[in-house]
Amino acid sequence: MQIFLYDTTLRDGTQREGLSLSVEDKLKITMMLDELGIHYIEGGWPGSNPKDAEYFQRVRETPLRQARVAAFGSTRRAGGQCEDDANIQALVAAQTPVVTLVGKSSVLHVEQVLETTRAENLAMIGESVAYFKALGKEVCYDAEHFFDGYKLDADYALSTLRAATEAGADVLVLCDTNGGSLPHEVAAITRVVRAQIGASATQIGIHTHNDGALAVANAMAAVQEGATQVQGTINGYGERCGNMDLIPTIANLQLKLGYSCVTPEQLARLSELSHYVAAIANLNPDDHAAYVGRSAFAHKGGIHVAAIAKVEHSYQHIDPTLVGNQKRVVVSELSGRGNIRLRAEELGLHLNGNERDVLQQIKERESKGYQFEAAEGSFEMLVRRSAADYVPPFELLDFTVTVEKRGNNEITALATVKVRVGNELMHTAADGEGPVDALDAAIRKALLPHYPQLAEVRLVDFKVRIIDAHLGTAATPRVLIESARGDERWSTTGASPNIIAASYQALWDSLELPLLRELIRK
Amino acid sequence: MQIFLYDTTLRDGTQREGLSLSVEDKLKITMMLDELGIHYIEGGWPGSNPKDAEYFQRVRETPLRQARVAAFGSTRRAGGQCEDDANIQALVAAQTPVVTLVGKSSVLHVEQVLETTRAENLAMIGESVAYFKALGKEVCYDAEHFFDGYKLDADYALSTLRAATEAGADVLVLCDTNGGSLPHEVAAITRVVRAQIGASATQIGIHTHNDGALAVANAMAAVQEGATQVQGTINGYGERCGNMDLIPTIANLQLKLGYSCVTPEQLARLSELSHYVAAIANLNPDDHAAYVGRSAFAHKGGIHVAAIAKVEHSYQHIDPTLVGNQKRVVVSELSGRGNIRLRAEELGLHLNGNERDVLQQIKERESKGYQFEAAEGSFEMLVRRSAADYVPPFELLDFTVTVEKRGNNEITALATVKVRVGNELMHTAADGEGPVDALDAAIRKALLPHYPQLAEVRLVDFKVRIIDAHLGTAATPRVLIESARGDERWSTTGASPNIIAASYQALWDSLELPLLRELIRK
């Protein structure tokens, strides 16, 4: 059976604290969602956010394959008319094929928040839906607080749905607005709705939030009771604890329950979709996200690694390639030579009998505080440097970093470095926000004339962890750096009682790695 | 009905990529879990990790209120004897009241991974359980891959449970090891197990993983079918996509389904528990975590804010104070003056009408990245410095820190500081293991002639967390220092894009605090 995917990343998703998207960002995400088979894209709330008008204008000029764009807004004001309701008219002006209208299902909200009568609320729903049906729109009716309202007064909650259906709504979307419902409640109430409204051709939709860590389960429970539209966001972005995450829901419905959501080719780009939206939103992807996280199919324990070497699916719930992810063997001091070889092969590298040497170096460095399991880039560098034909693209010879405070002046950070590239010696200096930032700037200044492509390499994450913390300021900091160039990502590490030295080691690896990878490609 | 909480943060949780805990960390978490009502604490796998032996030895000397410590291990090797099985004997040596044994439920794993016979696997389960029952232990039997195994061969999977029950296992824990099961499957299979094993007194437990974003829902489905032990980790830490998160599961079971898990007072510290474990693990807490995240009850949208002003629970699924969290309106500043007064009084300090001033300073510093939750010492310093009669025992005027590398020589770190004590100017210099260590040494050198008692002040912990990590090397490090003098302990903090500046602020507080406390005592 076909399930229709309704994405509200651009509207409800941006309610997440700290997340905001430009019109440009929204258009990029729209095109990606369309390409990957999302059926409905809710672009914004033109009545509440004037910026959204520009989006709706520009998206009309954007050719989409199949996705239908929806504008979101509430039913008309109490005591008013659709014709002169600013919010309703903003929805008209958006000129979308789909309009999603949110209305009240709960007597608490009708009487105490909206401060109107039950009858007027039914009229607001019916007239607003009818107004857009008369304009030829597809209308989704979002029944706000439906499950909570049903528990307060089931008859009234059902009567609001009837008002929408009788006015011609195409989809009745049951919303768990506060996100606190449980799967068995969602299932039972959806079953009642289907029985009551089932005679009509109206489809049922489900819109859930994650306040009980149950948003995906709640959406699936509704689908199993006959809902055919699922509303959510990419990566579960949204207010409070987030909206239902479409990513695992799509994978669960399609791979585990046999529903059709997208094509297998689109499903195989689910990881890409998740990472792409995170990148546009300027948020770090969740490494532990179901199906698409970097760690979702990572195996650390020696027993698990040994088992998957025998039977690939022994510790995996699905084949990760179905969702565009991959199995990953995590390298750590507990691993043996088999792990090292497997890991190197995954990176497309050959050890040519160097396993023992590389393992030896890993153990030595881990005893000094390095940790390679989260730093695949540094592991890759160890392997590459152990090759017989390795030629370093540059060498860091000397550096000095000075941090200074004089009275009430701003604290300054200055770095100087001496770098050899081929036969040339580069001597550079730079200021920075702090000592590591200054060091990074000085090294790049020395390398850029020779390797202009390093301008595209960005540091996207910087972590410090103190090991042996009980040694106080003499403890060993371990630095982890994540770098990116376009879609490519790598993480590198360094460890030393001197935090500047640890950062310097991680920085070195992070800048040398893309140069070596490029050489090989040529 | 009572539900027993079984925490495996210290064992399965540490399988999370990038997470590692020292023995000291593990003991701290153990005490917190015990205080907050967790019934079972799985401390480690002594047979696979030699470091765990030290934990089990030290936890025996730690007085716990009610929690029972469990050691984890697998059933004996195929073809062997419990008496000479290294893994089994490591469990014996751990001397815990509870032993948790993991065994195979799935014919795939028995035949293709373990490469033994179905009959031998049953003998391994039965003999291993009986061995520990004969030693007087409480035995939890973890049925690995139970749901997957049941789907492959239900009769065999059930026979493994019977082998454990007949040997005297106290709890049969159904494990969704690969994390891919769905709630309706977990419910149906748990129902069968209850029907088949229900006659015995054996309890049913549930252990789930989050690979389908359904771990909490799966655990709840099992509880609704009669499971009475739930196994999970704090914050859902764990391999791949993580284990079931105990935090929302406890809240859901207790607040929504009426089960008893912990006391209401313990429940009201759920947010604290989540943040405490994140701090020890040196991971940023998830702001969007259900129930306990900083954003879990944050309201951004104007309509929602207006509604909650009228009816508090109109957009909240529970009262946030039940789990120690709070409602937060994102744009406006909510007054926390009452909080400040309460905290100061807990420290034996009086604010004398300075609440507003101290609150202002806290807000200003928190906006720069400070966090006072885990740094009571720095909060105390804010309060003390705001007093009308405050006289600083010393002032740090200038400092310079230089880190230098010349060719293959050791990297050096040197600090010079200028400090005023009374009318005297002290100008000192010192080397260190790193820049912060050098700075600490130079400051102490300047202060010791005036305050010889500082020789007794030790730095016992030093942590660095990067906030805004996506800014790369220009991100803001937050430093947390824990200091001690005899039995007295205090923690201080600093934050700045310059890590040396952040450390310097935390160091200053850490050295001034004991001097001020002493002055007051005199």
TrEMBL record, chains A, B:
Q: In which pathway does it act?
A: Amino-acid biosynthesis; L-isoleucine biosynthesis; 2-oxobutanoate from pyruvate: step 1/3
Give the first-level EC class, as a single word: transferase
Q: From the UniProt record, list the reaction(s) this protein catalyses.
A: pyruvate + acetyl-CoA + H2O = (3R)-citramalate + CoA + H(+)
Using the record's annotation, list all stretches that form the Pyruvate carboxyltransferase domain.
Answer: 3-268
Any idea of its EC number?
Answer: 2.3.3.21
Q: Which GO terms describe its molecular function?
A: (R)-citramalate synthase activity; 2-isopropylmalate synthase activity
NCBIfam families from the UniProt entry: citramal_synth
For this chain, the family text in UniProt reads: Belongs to the alpha-IPM synthase/homocitrate synthase family.
Q: What protein name is recorded for this chain?
A: Citramalate synthase
Question: Which species expresses this protein natively?
Answer: Oscillochloris trichoides DG-6
